[in-house]
Structure formats: structure tokens, C-alpha cells
Amino acid sequence: MQATQTAHGAAIIVNEQNRQFHLTNGRISYIIKADEQGTLLSLYFGKAVPDREDFGYLIELAHRPTSTCRIDGDLHYSLEHLRQEYPEYGTGDYRTPAIAVCQPNGSDMVDLTYDGYHVSQGKPKLEGLPATYVDNEDDAATLSIDLVDRLIGLSVTLNYTVFADKPAVARSVVIGNNGADALSVERAMSLSLDLPDSDYDMTEFTGAWSRERHPHTQHLHYGTQQIESLRNASGHFANPVAAFARPGASEDHGEVIGLAFEYSGNFDLHAEVDTYDVTRLQLGINERGFAWHLEPGETFQTPEALIAYSDEGYDGMSRAFHRLVLDNIVRGAWKRRERPILINNWEATYFDFDEDKLVDIARTAKQAGVELFVLDDGWFGARNNDTAGLGDWTPNPARLPQGLAGLSKRINDLGLKFGLWFEPEMVNKDSDLYRAHPDWAVHTPGRHMNHGRNEFLLNFANKDVVDNIYGQMSRLLDEANIAYIKWDMNRFVSEGYDVTRGAEHQGEAYHRYILGVYDLLERLLQRFPDLIIEGCASGGGRFDMGMLYYTPQIWCSDDTDAIERLKIQYGTSYFYPLSAMGAHVSVVPNHQANRITPIETRANVAMFGTFGYELDLNTLSEEEFGKVRSQIEFFKRYREIIHTGDFHRLVSPDGNEQAAWMVVSRDRKTAIVGDYRILLTPNSRYMRLHLRGLDENAQYRVSCTGASSIDGAAFTGAELMRIGMVSSDGSYGEMGDSEPLGKASDFSSRLFVLTAE
Ligand code: DGJ
């Protein structure tokens, strides 16, 4: 037995004789074994168990009639009934394969067997792709298992990284052609895992523009339940994450397995339940539209998938992913760093602005305490509406007579940082770029080009295109003092094709496009390491772990209505931390929902995010402006906790009556609770919030931003977590009665600050 153990507790225990691998860190165990036939089997993933020389008893062979069997004369060994780590189709397993490779003779079956392993400390990079990383070699250990199909010279290396301090494993795969003929990889999952039963509730996060990432849960059933994207963006419609929970699991109890994909293009995440109740989980690039041509000697690297286990309910799963994002995905200058409070002019002006109007908005915002002014769409080329200009990244002199250098200087002189909107991947037909390079727009020769919002994708699979956009953007970043970029993307792919490559490479076009996007992001960050890039795609249409590697915050949704945002941010929080969620206060009636909500509630929701304003503060009354000032002051005081603390969901907004959530500082000395009324129930039930994550022995003094019977009182953490914090609305007298505590109303809200004494 050989164990590689990092100083911080990530261990890979290898039993060479039994070809058994046990990744553990005291919190989880992931056990894999190559059997005598060389098949790589999934033995266990879940809460940590002590190591054992041989877990082979978990391989349950049985004679099951009608099975296709592997060994001559043996009726027990069938791939159909084995729980595997990287299954193939064509050798007797009739479930969905992890891999398919087309060969010169037309066959796409592969037959993989174990061929060795390698263990290393730390976490290797994935060339050209986002991937988790560790600051210190001792924070993770990585196991690489080699599989081979000798007939066609195919090698498959499965990489597993176990993190020292997180109940999570990262997986990715490298597929190599060591044979004499070209091969075409037609399917290459990043993760495949067979679980021994199917008693799970699957929660997915579906939606559409303006209502992204609403959780939906259903019990697993026989057959395949899948979420996917074919838009070449993760999309508003399904997010590349899912939770698999034991029935009855709650926020703080029960077992939950979470999957997340660090990739921003087409994906396939599914659970397939066979008639023996085995569940096969798979996550990877969607096979539709994908085929990777491999010449002899070439390799293909899949993106990375993350799997986490919690025995502390959904909350435990969320904490694992939040910490992965904060510690192992977000990099560079903005890692675990408080984000600036911004004002964005989009909803304030849309396309109707000039330099003076922008400066007026910025000046007042500065007086309120805002730190960053962001100029949104419309500043460049002939962009007076959304039919023209994309691709021409030069300031429009009619709007900005002194260019970006002049505007950014005026903004900087006010004491604000300056940020700028781009939509780097798109082009309008009415643009100089398109007129000069019509072939750069994604199209299939001879086919009609469908548009989305009058725009077309640039072919980011073509390096010349990426170089051009990099040149245009970096020139502007050199010329003006730009601290922040909003990176928008407002349409999905159609007529996907790469005119720069031959027929055998067309299945690469979608993935190469995403690699081009990552390349541009990486090059900009290398050159301008202090830049904050905020991702955006018609709101939250590309909110994924892949983008977070480059863009530490992502605009959650174009829907800025506080009540809709409760649902969107609540759903988003299952996998993504508050520091990732772009959230702004906007005007009422709200532009998307036409709803009128108090300015307090708009801020109390947006504060659980990166926080900013998206309105012209000059239009507010003096009283409202005063409130904005206090909101900003409040946020500055607690921003560090909000952006780096532990978040807990308390009450789901689904009930349409109340929603609540909280964030606790890592030292558990301070907590902020957001308590929201949605539709008020007159004379309502008593309400208690069972807080989480506090120090049970500490005494917390409560201070409330609104009316509350417990304002100023102190309670132990134990009381607040077990008995609950009273959050009832006070008394409901007859009409005309005076109401000392003030009345809650539809859409009202309060923040409670708890400070340990
Ligand atoms: C879509 C984004 O989600 C909005 O915030 C805004 O930037 C517009 N695009 C601008 O066209």
C-alpha cells in the first residue's frame, strides 16, 4: 500500500496489488478500482470511510439472464452490471457511454482497459481552459489513471484532484491518439460516476431571460433525466450544475451530491437510472455538434467537472462550492477582495446619453459614496441603437468628443474609477468590421444567417479574429484609465461552422469558439492584471464556473426587480457565492416587472451581491438620496463579510410570503440577516428564523435597519439557531390603530446585524 498525503490532509491511498485507489481528506472518500479484466470501477463516493486493503466486496457479480458477457464460459462478468468510471458503448454496457471515438473503418466502439497510474501533489493547470488551482502544493493531491485501447492506439487519462480542506473532487480527461490513423472523438465526458442506487432528488436550475436559475426538484426516475445547452453558452435555460439529494434532505440535514461544470459552452449533465436502480451521473461537453479530430500524436483535453459531497444538506453543498469559487477558481487581484460599489448607466439612459449627462450621473453617485462608474452599451462606432456598431470599438465622437481618455479623466477627477461595456464576441452587419471581414461572422457557407438582437457571432475559433478584438480592446485599455470591463454577450449560436477549417474539423467549431473566448480573456488579464471583468450575457445567460475563472463577478440577471431578484439570487446561491453575483438597485416602476418596491428593499436584496446602482440618482427625492447614502455606508461597513463570509439560505421565496437569508463572517463574530416580506398576509402567523453558522456560545447583540421587537436585544448563538430569531411583523391592530413597530407591507424588508459581544 502506498499513500501520498499532503501536509494539509489530502490523501491518495493506492493499493497497487489490488489496483485500488482511495482519494480522501477525512471528509470524503472516492474509491476506484481496476478489476482483473482491467475495467475501471466506481466503488464509492461519499462521506469518508477508513481505508481497507480491498474494497473488492463492493463489486457484486451475478448471473443475470440476457446479459452480454466478457469472459468466455463465464456468465457473471458483464459490463452492463458493473459500476464504472469511464464506460464505453459496444462491449456490452447499454447505458450511455462516457466516450465514443470514430475510427477509419467506421467503428466508434472503444474498449478501454487499465494501463497504470500516477500521483502528484497539487493541482495541474488545464492548457487553455479554466480549472481549479491551489496556492500551495499541500492543498491538493492529484491522481491520474491511464486507460488504453491498444487496437486503435487510444489513450485516456482520467485526472482526479482531491482538495485538502473541501469535500470535493475535480475531474478531467485527456484523450490521446498514439496509433497510426487519425481518430475522431465524438463524445468525451469530463465526469462519469455510477452510484449504487437511485434514491435521489435531482435539483436543476432552469429559467429564461429575466428569471434565471430557479430551482426545480424531482425524484429520479428510470431512464435519463438531462439538462443541457446547445446554444454554445451555458445559457439562461439550464445551468451546468445540479444537486442530487437523499429524499428529506433539507438545508442543514441529509446527504447531497453536487455537480458543476467549469465550462461556458454546450454541456450535457444527466442522470441515467437503469432497471437495477444504478444511477449513472455524467457531465461534459454536449456530444451534439462536437467531434474532435485527432491526428496521430495529438491529444484532446476535456474541461473540468467538480463533484462535492455534503452530509449537512444543501447548505453544506453550497458552502463547498462557494469555497471552491473563492479559494480555487477566482484568481489574481480580485480573489477574496471586496468589490467596488458601482453605478451603471444602462437603465438610467439606455442609448440616450452624451458625455455631460454621464458625468452628471457620476458626480451625484460619487456624492452618495459610489466608487466606480460604468459606461454601458452605446459609446462606440455607430451604435445609436442595437442595429449597428458592434465590432467597431472606437468611441463615438458625437457622444464622447474627448474620447474615452477624456471621459475617464473626468470620471477619475470626480474620485471614481471608470468601467466600460464591451460585447467582444459580436458584430453587427452595419459595422466597419463586418464590411471589411464579412467572413469573420459565424456562418455556414451558402446558408441564410439568422440573427439575434440584430447581431452575429464573430468566429472566435479563428485566431485572427481574436487577435483583432484583443488589439482593439487593449488599445483602449492603454489609452484610457479603465478599471473594469462589463463583458456582455447577447445572442446564441446558429449556423455554427468554422470557415477557416476543413470538413473533418467542423465538429470542433463550437468548442474552439469557447477556447477563443477564454484565450481573449486570459490575454487581457495577463496584460491588465488589476482589471475586474464582470461577465454578462443578456443578464445571467452565461453564469458558470468557467467564466468565474476569468470574471470574478457575473451580472445575475437583467431583471432588477427586488422580488424577482430574491428568487434569482436565492437559486444562484446554491452553487455560486455572493461575491459572484452582480446585483443593482434600479428605479420603480421596475423596467422588467413594472413592480413598485421600496428603495430599502431594492438595496436590501442587491446588498447580497456585488452591489451597485443602475439609475440616475439625480432623479431621486432628497429623502431617497439620503437613504442611498446610508445604504452605501452600511454596505461598506459589512462588505468584507458579504463578499468573503459564509452564506446561508433561510426561507425560500417560493412561498410568496417571506424570504430570508444570512451571511456570517468567517470568525463568526458578525452576521447579517436579510428578512423580506413578499406578499403580506394580514394578521399573519408567527415567524422565526432559524439562523445558521453562528457560534452557539457567543452572545449576539441585534440591530435592525427597520422596525423590530428584538432591536437592541442580545441572544446566544444557540438560541438564535435552535429557538430561532423572532421575525414576526408585530401586532396587527384595527384600521386606524397606532402601530408602534410600524407595519410590514408587501415588499417590505429589514436587515438584522448580529454582533458578538
Ligand atoms: C444586456 C445586458 O444584460 C444589459 O445589462 C445591458 O448591458 C445591455 N445588454 C446593453 O445592450
UniProtKB/TrEMBL annotation:
InterPro entries: Aldolase_TIM, Alpga-gal_N_sf, Alpha-glycosidase_related, GH, Glyco_hydro_27/36_CS, Glyco_hydro_36, Glyco_hydro_36_C, Glyco_hydro_36_N. It comes from the Bacteria. The keyword Hydrolase applies. The active site is at residues 488, 558. GO terms for molecular function: alpha-galactosidase activity. Residues 658-754 form the Glycosyl hydrolase family 36 C-terminal domain. Keywords: Glycosidase, Hydrolase. Residues 39-295 form the Glycosyl hydrolase family 36 N-terminal domain. This is Alpha-galactosidase.
